[in-house]
Amino acid sequence: MKFLVSGHGSIRNSIKFGFQIWCVGVTKLECVTGEGRARERIWLYERLRSNDFETRGRVASTRLNFPFLFLHQLYALSLPMAGHTESVLPLHVIDLAENDRHLLAQKVKKACLEHGFFYLINHGIDLKLIDKVFEQSKLFFDLPVDEKMRSLQDNNYRGYVPIGKETLNPIESKQGDSREAYFIGWEMSEDHPLALKPLHGPNQWPSKDLLPEWRETLETYFYKLLEVGHCVASLVALALDLEADYFRHMFMAPAVALRPLHYIGEISCPEEGRFGTGPHGDYGMLTFLATDENRGLQVCRARDGEPKLWEDVPPKKESFIVNLGDMLERWTNGLFKSTQHRVVTDGIDRYSVAYFYDPDYDTVIECLPTCHSEEFPPNYPPITMGDYFKMKFTSRAQGSSNMNSTPI
Ligand SMILES: O=C(O)CCC(=O)C(=O)O
């Protein structure tokens, strides 16, 4: 079977062109070479020729549904694979079912030193709950825009973040990130003394009439993940030769945040500054990411390397992808790296749920006692978590880099 692939200009053109193909039932693939996207067409051609099941499956299954989508996806497949690379980063796997905590801590240390990312398995969260979180998240993002806008993000960053509103990397991105999000923090009544601080206060919740199970599902997940966060933080502490509970008292009313995300099925093109999520390092301590089965996450291990090498981190069933944030890099005097990452999407809707495990607002982030010596003095002055985040948000708003850029 052959398909004809055109891929020039806009999606609209390709849909129009593709629709004609659909109507006349053309079944011929012509691999057009010699122009900008030749490499990608060859990729598609090779995949179809070699009977690549996934590619065929995706094309075929969409074809049954709706011709527009069929062509949209075919077009997507003809693009620069939305920046996907052939290389997959084989991350370490941390298994929380492992009994020997000290051995596990050594594995965490290796993962933190080598990649700043790892898969976490046997984390103890019921997979049915995770499925339900994705189901509820999709229900919210499927609501009409007007309905979603009723819980528009407030001054504490809580609530709905519309498509393209955020740009995680204002330097490299030419447009807002092609995703929408919802931000949920530590629930706190308006009259709580801490609610006067930035980022603190009540959450926004979608209408119970529309989504009766939303709040309960997301809150249950939020607090279960907090326990997983404490567990991994204790392994990080052991990995740094600190007491297992070293970080625990810093999480009394923490600035943790749950963020369901929906990538809207656009086609990323890193060369043209179009991303699902622009290249960035997370601001905080640890991030726990659950994704659907669609790939998109990529990491760049050598932050200053030129050209940058981006490696795919594919989803792994029943696991979280955990990464270290800039704050932990600062805390450890640069020992543990906050690895740059981004999301590139290839025309298919993608859902993920990120959980940012960050300490109390007034926690002082000061070089950890085991991370400096006479030979290696602290690189950064102490700063509170709140001020650190303010600095990060300000530098992003001013369009500058958001890594740890203020050494002593
Ligand atoms: O959706 C993903 O896979 C990653 C999201 C992310 O990196 C972020 O929101 O900081």
UniProtKB/TrEMBL annotation:
<keyword id="KW-0479">Metal-binding</keyword>
<dbReference type="InterPro" id="IPR044861">
    <property type="entry name" value="IPNS-like_FE2OG_OXY"/>
</dbReference>
<dbReference type="GO" id="GO:0046872">
    <property type="term" value="F:metal ion binding"/>
</dbReference>
<protein>
    <recommendedName>
        <fullName>Fe2OG dioxygenase domain-containing protein</fullName>
    </recommendedName>
</protein>
<dbReference type="InterPro" id="IPR005123">
    <property type="entry name" value="Oxoglu/Fe-dep_dioxygenase_dom"/>
</dbReference>
<dbReference type="GO" id="GO:0051213">
    <property type="term" value="F:dioxygenase activity"/>
</dbReference>
<dbReference type="InterPro" id="IPR026992">
    <property type="entry name" value="DIOX_N"/>
</dbReference>
<keyword id="KW-0560">Oxidoreductase</keyword>
<comment type="similarity">
    <text>Belongs to the iron/ascorbate-dependent oxidoreductase family.</text>
</comment>
<feature type="domain" description="Fe2OG dioxygenase">
    <location>
        <begin position="254"/>
        <end position="359"/>
    </location>
</feature>
<dbReference type="Pfam" id="PF03171">
    <property type="entry name" value="2OG-FeII_Oxy"/>
</dbReference>
<keyword id="KW-0408">Iron</keyword>
<dbReference type="Pfam" id="PF14226">
    <property type="entry name" value="DIOX_N"/>
</dbReference>
<dbReference type="InterPro" id="IPR027443">
    <property type="entry name" value="IPNS-like_sf"/>
</dbReference>
